[in-house]
Design a protein that fits this description.
four-stranded parallel β-sheet, 10 helices, alpha/beta, globular, single chain
Length: about 350
């Protein structure tokens, strides 16, 4: 009898030790389609952010075999309503988790519309040793063949994998793993909605196995690039879209509003009309930082290419999209207004 008791206690101790060895993953939920609820399982209409994080975790019970899972509800919004305040809340909480060693990895559930912006913002303000993986879905939780549970399972798998450490913030979607700087949403409705046009995915996750094929070298230093806390007030930066015969009136308006920065979503190599050029000269003379980006989905905007940036007083986004250039300009302006230093941020991060 004593032998049986000893065997049982040994088994229990071994089981507990194994359980403690499982990676600790905290899911921070923000809402989005992955938490969406529709009136019909076979129609597109739904309301984002209705399903709580506990139900999202409950939809994939098998994940408990690979990680110790807990969840927190940070917000419950569609990502079209994502805000800087929620970004700061996420950053503060993740920094707290990292400093207190509360988890081995973080997964953020998020709507797809602005997922790439949240990922890039966090990548610039978080230490990159702790894996942070953002995912979502294109179909609501109540839809036929909802893609949320699989994406969430894969994201947890990626966050729990030791190979994910030190890679900055990642986006995991449709079995692909993307760098936060390079990824963008390319489809309005398809489940393979994300791509990295210039560089491709970093790797993939399939059947519970994570494989990386490359490493990003942009903006993944081991120290935070920029710092934010709940009281940080970010500079006001707006985006102006260039198109044939576009009016420069909005640029003039922003100058009058005394914004801190303007990103021009230019045509081609970040180009814009003579009318825009004249308005931008007024902006830079008013000490407003102006960044030339491109509305094209691939390629770099070249410094002093067709546009004389040195004369105009502008900086270029390199290959950052206008929406990501806005984020970097906001954070850059918390440190400096010097044009050369701002330009170096765009070439570095």
């Amino acid at each position: 009898m004593k032998k049986l008791v000893l065997v049982f206690l040994l088994f229990l101790a071994t089981s507990m030790a194994f359980a403690q060895q499982k990676p600790r993953i905290i899911i921070l939920a923000t809402g989005g389609t992955i938490a969406g609820e529709g009136k019909s399982s076979d129609r597109a209409g739904y309301t984002a952010g209705k399903v709580p994080v506990s139900d999202l975790i409950g939809s994939i019970p098998s994940v408990n075999a690979i990680a110790a899972i807990s969840g927190e509800q940070i917000s419950s919004v569609g990502s079209q309503d994502m805000s800087i305040e929620i970004w700061k809340k996420l950053a503060v909480r993740i920094n707290e988790i990292a400093s207190k060693n509360e988890a081995d990895g973080i997964v953020i559930t998020h709507g797809t519309d602005t997922q790439e912006e949240t990922a890039y913002f966090l990548n610039l303000v978080l230490p990159n040793d702790l894996p942070v993986v953002i995912t979502g879905s294109m179909r609501p939780a109540t839809a036929i063949s909802a893609d949320g549970p699989k994406n969430l399972f894969d994201a947890i798998t990626v966050a729990a994998d030791p190979k994910s450490k030190g890679r900055g913030v990642l986006v995991c979607f449709n079995e692909s793993i993307y760098d936060s700087r390079e990824v963008t949403k390319t489809s309005t409705t398809k489940v393979n909605a994300f791509k990295s046009p210039d560089s491709g995915p970093l790797g993939e996750v399939y059947d519970g196995r994570v494989e990386y094929y490359k490493t990003s070298v942009r903006g993944n230093s081991k120290e935070k690039s920029f710092e934010v806390n709940k009281n940080t007030k970010l500079p006001k930066v707006e985006i102006v879209y260039m198109y044939a015969d576009a009016s420069p009136g909005y640029i003039d308006y922003l100058v009058n509003q005394k914004v801190d920065g303007i990103v021009i979503a230019g045509v081609g190599n970040g180009n814009f009309s003579k009318a825009f050029t004249d308005a931008i000269k007024k902006a830079t003379k008013a000490n407003i930082a102006v960044c030339r980006a491109s509305r094209c989905s691939e390629g770099r905007v070249v410094l002093d290419g067709e546009t004389n940036d040195n004369e105009l007083g502008t900086v270029v986004s390199d290959n950052l999209s206008p929406q990501k250039a806005r984020i970097l300009l906001m954070l850059g302006l918390t440190k400096t207004k010097n044009k050369k230093e701002l330009q170096e941020y765009f070439f570095r991060f």
